[in-house]
Amino acid sequence: MDPLIITVAPVGAEVTRADNPNVPYTPEEIAEECYLAWREGASIAHIHGRDEHGTATQDPKVYREIIERVKEKTGGDMIIQVSTGGAVGMSAAERVAPVSLKPDMATLTCGTVNFGDGIFTNSRGDMEFFAAAIKENGVLPEFEIFDAGMIENARRLAQKGLITLPGHFDFVMGVPGGISGDPRNLMHLMSLIPEGSTWTVAGIGRHELPLAAMAVVLGGHVRVGFEDNIYYSRGILAKSNAQLVARIVRLATELGRPVAKPDDARKILGLRRKEN
Question: What is the predicted pLDDT for the residue at 58?
Answer without folding.
Answer: 97
